[in-house]
Amino acid sequence: MSHTTPPLTAKDFASNQEVKWCPGCGDYSILKQVQTVFPAFGVAKENIVFVSGIGCAARFTYYMDTYGMHTIHGRAATIAAGIKTINPNLSVWMVSGDGDALSIGGNHFIHLFRKNFDIKYLMFNNQIYGLTKGQYSPTSEQGKVAKSTPYGSVELPFNPPEVALGAKATFVARSLDRDPKHLQAMLTRANAHKGTAFVEIYQNCPVFNDGTFFAYSEKETKQEAALILEHGAPLLFGNDRSKGIRLDGTMPQIVDLNEGTYSQTDLWIHDESDKTKANLLARFPDFDLPLPRPFGVFYAELRPTYEDLLNEQANELIAKKGKPMLNKILAGEKTWTVL
Amino acid sequence: MSDLPVSASKPIIEKESIVIRFSGDSGDGMQLTGNQFADTAAFLGSDLSTFPEFPAEIRAPAGTPAGVSGFQLHFGSKQIYTPGDKYDVLVAMNAAAFKVDIAKLKTGGIIIANTGGFDKKNLQLAGYTDNVSPLDTHAVDNYSVYKIDISRHTKDCLEQSGLGTKEIERSKNMFVLGLLFWMFDEPMDYTIGFINEKFGKKPDIALANINTLKAGWNYGDNTEIFANRYKVSSAHLPPGNYRNITGNQATAIGLIAAAHQANLPLFLGSYPITPASDVLHELSKYKTSNVKTFQAEDEIASIGAAIGASYAGALAATTTSGPGMSLKAEAMGYAVMLELPLLIIDIQRGGPSTGLPTKTEQSDLLQAMYGRHGEAPLPVLAAATPSDCFETVYAAAKIAIEHTTPVICLTDGYIANGSEPWRYPQEEDLQPISVNFATQPNTDSGAFLPYKRDDRYVRPWAIPGTPGLTHRIGGLEKAHETGNVSYDANNHELMTQLRAKKINAIADAIPLASIETGKATGKLLVLGWGSTFGAIKTTVTELIAEGHEVSQLHLRHINPFPKNLHRLLTAFDKIIIPEMNCGQLVKLIRAEFLLPAISYTKVQGLPFTTAELKKFCLEQIKLF
Ligand SMILES: Cc1ncc(C[n+]2csc(CCOP(=O)(O)OP(=O)(O)O)c2C)c(N)n1
Ligand code: SF4
Ligand SMILES: [Mg+2]
Description:
Shape of chain B: globular
Structural class of chain B: alpha/beta
CATH architecture of the domain at 10-217 in chain A: 3-Layer(aba) Sandwich
CATH class of the domain at 10-217 in chain A: Alpha Beta
Strand order of the largest sheet of chain B: 11-10-12-13-15-14-21
Number of strands of chain B: 23
Oligomer: heterodimer
Low-confidence stretches of chain B: 1-7
Strand content of chain A: 15-25%
Number of helices of chain A: 11
Bound molecules: thiamine diphosphate, iron/sulfur cluster, magnesium ion
Largest interface: A-B, 62 and 72 residues
Order of helices and strands of chain A: HEEHEHHEHEHEHHEEEEHEHHE
Number of domains of chain B: 3
Mean pLDDT of chain A: 96
Largest sheet of chain A: 8 strands, mixed
Structural class of chain A: alpha/beta
CATH topology of the largest domain in chain B: Pyruvate-ferredoxin Oxidoreductase, domain 3
Helix content of chain A: 25-40%
């Protein structure tokens, strides 16, 4: 990465294109937080590539003054994989909507994590198809009344962190558009992770799904509804952080610290390296309990990246066998001469 | 039968060319046997053409017609362009193989039958329900039949080897190979070397195979049943260094050579599919040559990854067959919009749908031409023979890189699996491929315009990592020059036309077409593309020798057509276009030139025979 570039500012990352999301769209905030934190990463603009699929979220690419590819619906992961394989030095960032990532792109979604390219994956989850004007999405809650489901959707949604963990993601986090500080922190963590870093970002779509995540962002409710994860710290939430979560076997249990039965030392201590607990955290919405929604880094694991393994394999082979000359390849194993 | 004493050397009859069909159960090792014979014949200077044919099922029920695997080899002292319509020798390892392949044995031809494969059980499995071996009926009246219990001879030979029944049974193809080497006066050394290499770590198995091979040879030499031996002299091939090559191997090393000459890494995104997988297999061996093979989760991911790799600065390719080609269609449209170098190689097979996965067809031409949404023209090239896959892929890569465009390359199962001797080039014989990565802004103002074109309508290839050229590309229509998103009506029309002009301008860079066989004017022209080359070449050569006024023209470039094509075509009274589809090139020729070309088609999953092509040409000649 270039050492000669003068320090960049947020403005340097804004392209000359007019941003065209609807007024009040949560995507604006995400764009702002990305542009705000990027200078601190110290990566020259020319070494950054944004790759997005199709959808409102995916327009993101056009607004960043970096290299960028706005690709095909669902296929951003495939293209990002090709870029990273050929040039591992690039900082590759993906942006997808919930439909782009988990519906049409579902197959690529899981395989990307399994392979563990060093790619940052930002999934803007508004639980709706924005660009096609308001159909329910694979993350919409069961019973969702939307354009294509006037009587409510009948099927269960995907839970993105759960899918990502199941697909062997090495970094899984959640944040939201309306908490700039938290979002900046998660972007920074994702950037620092070597491997595929998945960040689900709850994003408000004021036009087709307004207020879906307000419980987690608005002052009146967020203390009770949201759980901010911190590595090594107990799971605390509620007004005055008076509630905690402890584990009863494999069952989460909400406890009131003011009652005196339990103290902080009895609580579930968040451990980013514990996959079993990360899975439980991801599955909080499934429990028949008023569990808060977790935000933060669910899970982080260091595992060799696809591109590193690929290059190591090639280098080992070269060390052992050398590089064949083209003429040798053209001739193959068995030749004969006609005079 | 001859009265010669045993072991006396038997008379050797000189032949100009011979066609052998090795036919047996999928587990009988016929492909290996055929390949060994072909390699040996090539080594000794024969020209040849091979045609492996296998069932779609990996292990169809043993002994049934569905499980028959065949390998056809045509070798000769003259130039050989096809694997032959009919064979001189049929090796039938069981009754099912006999049943499937007897129809194409020449009258008077030789049958070498493994009687061990004609027992009651095998007869039943093959559908000879009356339990009468066809070898004992009038079905073989017109042939010389050699009934040999190959299974038993192999057993006898390996009794002391310590090998199990299964392994012994598996060695019987070596007996056949040894016998045929004797029969055609070919040496065993090449195969002995091969066996030693293959079973280097299992000397007992190597020895067993070699002993069986020799037993087959000795059987021919020592028993009285064979009256004659045959000999095919060396062909007068142009001087040079040769190797044997299949179409898929040629495709793979064509890609390596192009990437090498362009000084780029090679990226192959692929998803396994018959008959394309061998290109992926072959390229995955070349990790030490800056080749990155990526077995993706599906065909869409494989072309997506290739597009990403191209954007990042690789020579990127994706290989597939019909169904996969259809899955890639959307991404191809995207690549048209991006105008990045990319090779899309379709190794065609019988379709639609899963169709005839192991059989050949040329039915994806119109899909290659038009199978995309929107106005999305792409260059289309097609390979004519196994070794021509190298030339064609190389030419396609040169166009892709020098014109920054995706290019479609068509081959098919027939030439992909078939092989022929190839006078391979040296590095210095290869045309240069020039890569022009953008390194500087392309305007006086210092701005970089990613869609500013040169006089060939080619846009710059600016790869990430290049300072000062950050830009965004995507599938939305782009404004002329700036590449910014534009919904402007006139701009869309302009860009649509520019994309088409760019492809048409490639005609200025490709070689002119030329008459392959015969005179430049005349009554009848046989126009072909792709793997019909050999059958047409043989047919036209024979017709000319018989005094007819016929010529051959074969197209490598189908889009754009060579600039002189119209002029060449109009020098003939009649044009016939044979195709292994329902008439696809003929539509293009009629539409482009308003010429009343005559279509001759075959969709049986099989290549044309020279005989049927000749018959059709003669009928057309009679109509003059
Ligand atoms: C192959 C294909 N199918 C369908 C579409 C139409 N389409 C565009 S965006 C979209 C869904 C967008 O939803 P999401 O990914 O959640 O993004 P959002 O707009 O909500 O940010 C669909 C169905 C398309 N562009 N391409
Ligand atoms: S439709 Fe919704 S998601 Fe799309 S831009 Fe408008 S507010 Fe944002
Ligand atoms: Mg959405």
